[in-house]
Specification:
This protein is of the alpha/beta class. The protein is built from seven helices and nine strands, in the order ββαββαββααβαβαβα. The strands form two sheets. Strands 6-5-4-7-8-9 form a six-stranded mixed β-sheet, with helices on both faces. A three-stranded antiparallel β-sheet has the order 1-3-2. It starts with a strand and ends with a helix.
Length: 245
């Protein structure tokens, strides 16, 4: 919403400026409330978090702590933060065992209340099996499009980037993830990918996530310094891609 006659803002209120100058000419004190301020009065973002629970994240990461524990901590923090600011948020864990068995565990659906039940589900997740990441991305996008219910939509993938399964070797897997992320953006879905606490080389993560906004987060507490710009970049790129498509 645009609010006129403010003392600060992101644009000039022309009518207020003219009236202020007329007032000065009439001997009145100059009115400094000559700005327009834009304020968002309601949230318009839905976020679906995809948490990698494949076997590779059970390995020790930075500081010797299991990657899964660090990624789960970030997922919990983001879940709470997004819920508190009023965004619609969902969280699914994913792993796979071949192309016909891609499993997504619903930790929190969009219309569920965030409470102790959701947190128990999150902290009961156990890593295992493989990561057919492209399929998980496509399922997450379909859930966003069907259930998100907001103009802006964002998919947030938390993974070590080691996409692998039977017949889903690294080169093919990376190409499939690139394709899935590109498809998401044509539907107006922003994509952010995070590697948290992982020892995976940056080059390897870039091969998998390079078509999306992504970041390598050494420690869970580092998330706050980068998540805002990543969200903004992802949503902007998605809108541009949607318009092109």
């Amino acid at each position: 919403m645009r609010h006129p006659r403010q003392r600060q803002g992101d644009d000039i209120d022309i009518d207020a400026v003219i009236e202020s100058q007329l007032g000065v000419g009439a001997g009145l004190p100059q009115d400094e409330a000559v700005y327009l301020e834009s304020q968002r009065r309601r949230r318009d973002l839905s976020v679906l978090i995809l948490l990698d629970i494949s076997g590779s994240v059970a390995q020790p990461g930075v500081d010797g702590v299991a990657i899964h524990e660090q990624q789960r901590k970030v997922a919990a923090s983001l879940l709470r933060a997004l819920h508190e600011v009023g965004d619609r948020v969902a969280l699914y864990g994913f792993h796979s065992q071949g192309k016909s068995e891609v499993h997504l565990a619903a930790v929190k659906r969009f219309d569920e209340v965030l409470g102790s039940t959701v947190m128990k589900r999150l902290f009961s997740l156990k890593p295992g099996a493989y990561s057919r990441l492209g399929a998980a991305v496509r399922h997450g996008v379909s859930q966003l499009l069907e259930q998100g219910g907001t103009p802006r939509k964002l998919l947030l993938v938390i993974s070590d980037g080691l996409a692998y399964d039977h017949g889903y070797e690294p080169v093919y897997a990376a190409a499939d993830v690139h394709q899935a992320l590109g498809e998401a953006r044509t539907h107006g879905v922003g994509c952010v990918c995070l590697g948290v606490g992982s020892m995976t080389e940056v080059e390897a993560l870039q091969q998998v996530f390079g078509s999306a906004a992504y970041a390598v987060i050494p420690h869970p507490q580092d998330i706050s310094r980068c998540i805002g710009p990543l969200f903004e970049t992802a949503l902007m790129n998605a809108e541009i891609q949607r318009q092109i498509a």
